[in-house]
Write a structure and sequence with these properties.
Elements lengths: L1 H11 L3 H10 L11 H20 L2 H6 L5 H33 L14 H22 L7 H24 L1 H8 L6 H30 L6
InterPro entries: ABC2_memb-like
Keywords: Membrane, Transmembrane, Transmembrane helix
Pfam family, one: ABC2_membrane_5
Length: about 220
């Protein structure tokens, strides 16, 4: 499985997609921006280009001729997706910390969620929703990715839109995420922990469903 991951990372993915997370993370330095958009570029740019590249290279057929099981093929592909997701969230979080340091002495009014531990927990839930839809749907054919990608992206964006709307309309929630963050650090840590657990659980579930579906796919 390790060799399959390395194959995908070295041969199947353009190296620019390892740089994009750092470049897109710079958007976190924009004061009072819609920071939910930063990890969404993973859905809009990285995933479609990555899957299209695999399809163009006929990677599935190539990999199926190697002495590996279908289970390992799915596991490796899911691992690659998770690695890229972590890179996007990780760099965004790093620049989020830099954002806090740069604007620490400025009175910035946040209409949307400020970067915080709780916010990153919400982002991980968004990634979890994306994975639980994209991965199992894709492995029904292991070839067609457009519809699974559109539905997964739409679901993640709807989730983010609803959560952000509640954060704007509900003053208590807005204060917790934008004004009194330090006073609710325990709550933010809990939201982050819940986000990590949900991300892991949803992704693992998506992987297991994908394996079962991929075992029924005949590779010609």
């Amino acid at each position: 499985m390790y060799n399959l991951v390395i194959k995908d990372l070295k041969l199947g993915i353009n190296r620019m997609f390892f740089v994009f997370p750092a470049l897109l993370g710079l958007l976190m330095l924009i004061p009072s921006w819609i920071y939910f958009l930063v990890p969404m570029y993973f859905y809009w740019i990285t995933v479609p280009n990555m899957f299209n590249n695999f399809k163009t290279q006929n990677d599935m057929m190539f990999t199926s001729m190697m002495p590996v099981t279908k289970k390992d093929m799915v596991k490796a592909r899911v691992a690659v997706i998770v690695i890229l997701e972590i890179l996007h969230i990780g760099f965004a979080a790093i620049f989020g910390v830099i954002h806090d340091l740069v604007y620490a002495n400025l009175n910035i009014g946040y209409q949307f969620f400020a970067p915080s531990m709780g916010f990153w927990g919400l982002c991980l839930v968004m990634m979890a929703i994306f994975n639980i839809i994209l991965i199992p749907m894709y492995y029904k054919t292991a070839y067609k990715f457009s519809v699974p990608l559109i539905l997964a992206t739409a679901a993640a964006m709807i989730y983010a839109g609803i959560v952000q709307w509640v954060g704007i309309e509900n003053k208590s929630m807005s204060d917790i995420f934008n004004v009194t963050i330090a006073e609710h650090i325990g709550l933010h840590a809990s939201i982050l922990a819940a986000g990590i657990v949900l991300f892991a659980a949803f992704t693992l579930t998506a992987y297991r469903i994908a394996v079962q579906r991929f075992l029924k796919v005949e590779l010609l």
